[in-house]
Design brief:
By secondary structure, the protein is an alpha/beta fold. The protein contains nine helices and five strands. It is about 55% helix and about 15% strand.
């Protein structure tokens, strides 16, 4: 079984994917961590030194490679992955259980503001209202891709362990 967890920044994709992998005794992969290990640079360093086009090409290559090389895994992908290089076609293909962790803009804003590591990936010096508008714009553009997932979990006001249980119940 291949399960891919998608969602916007602040949707706890990695933590939830790890818990699902543990419960199902599957391997866990974080797509961007695999790229960072291979390139020996962080994602921002890759983008700054080699460009966004290079990064999106290698991201797509790694996505396909991980899916093709592993028949039992849970893969966490970052918020932009489904939106580039026709990656969504691989994410929603027949043999893959794709999951979108859906949060409201207010919940995402709260999660992002409460996690300095995530907050550092957003434009600096934004007020909370500017950050909310930024998230709103991104979600408007990306929901088209996220909503193609086979499983959509409304995550607002739900504990992480309950989100995991909802996903497990939704799997074929």
């Amino acid at each position: 079984m291949v399960i891919i967890i998608t969602g916007y920044s602040g949707s706890n994709k990695i933590s939830i994917a790890k818990k699902i992998a543990k419960k199902l005794n599957l391997n866990f992969f974080d797509l961007h961590k695999k790229i960072e290990e291979y390139e020996m640079l962080s994602v921002p360093e890759i983008i700054n030194s080699k460009g966004n086009v290079f990064f999106r090409k290698i991201e797509s290559k790694f996505l396909k490679q991980i899916i093709n090389d592993n028949k039992g895994l849970v893969l966490s992908v970052n918020e932009g992955t489904p939106c580039y290089s026709n990656n969504i076609k691989y994410i929603i293909s027949n043999n893959i259980e794709s999951v979108y962790l859906k949060y409201s803009i207010d919940s995402l804003l709260k999660n992002i503001l409460n996690n300095q590591n995530i907050l550092n990936t957003f434009p600096k010096n934004y007020t909370n209202n500017q950050l909310k508008e930024y998230i709103s714009k991104h979600l408007f553009e990306r929901r088209l891709y996220y909503n193609k997932c086979k499983i959509i979990i409304d995550c607002d006001e739900i504990r992480e362990d309950d989100i995991v249980e909802k996903i497990l119940l939704s799997l074929n």
